[in-house]
Amino acid sequence: MATNLYDYAYELEHALRKSNEFIYLKQMYAAVENDQIAKSMFDAFRNVQMKLQQKQMEGLDITETEVMEAQEIANRVQSNEKVTRLMEAEQRMSTSINELNKIIMKPLDELYGFINR
Amino acid sequence: MATNLYDYAYELEHALRKSNEFIYLKQMYAAVENDQIAKSMFDAFRNVQMKLQQKQMEGLDITETEVMEAQEIANRVQSNEKVTRLMEAEQRMSTSINELNKIIMKPLDELYGFINR
Ligand SMILES: [Ca+2]
Ligand SMILES: [Ca+2]
């Protein structure tokens, strides 16, 4: 039965790889990768995001300077069409992944929901 | 294409629901639910786990008393066969879910791996 389960996962993986969302995301990544300015903006934005997430996870306070720095980079990034298209593509992919997860995890959600009533 | 993607997810959900791992997990949950002693041990163990996880997420220190309390409950729980079987079933299910996720997320892992080279 376990092998069968993995077969279905491989079929979903294949469908994901061929999906419009994923193909579009790859194209938008390539567009940013091949543009030095877009690439450095995107990297800077990602680094600030990761730094703030890391601090949050460690329960550390985020300073006013850091909030302002993040906002400044976010504003700059929004002026670059390639980067904003990539961020939209990532957002769309992430929404699809969340919906896929919700579908797949339904049996477990039901079981835990029943238990925690 | 998006509809198609969800079709594959629904097929995987269906397979998960019919899998040996999931059916066994449901049975082990029912066994604990129907045994007052096992149920209260399991609930106590889960509560302590959740409390410690919550503190970790908030970056708070876990006291020596809390570690000892958690260990004491873990020891007690290990003496109950129904609870240990349920915990093993959960562990097995969780391992399968992780492997399914690894398979499904491969396209995205490859894309991000390529980008972050
Ligand atoms: Ca198949
Ligand atoms: Ca189908």
UniProtKB/TrEMBL annotation, chains A, B:
Q: What InterPro entries does its record include?
A: Com_YlbF, YheA/YmcA-like_dom_sf
* Membrane-crossing residue ranges in chain numbering: none
Q: Please name the Gene3D superfamilies in this protein's record.
A: YheA/YmcA-like (1.20.1500.10)
**To which protein family does this belong?**
Belongs to the UPF0342 family.
The name this protein goes by in its record: UPF0342 protein J2S14_000050
Organism equals Lederbergia wuyishanensis
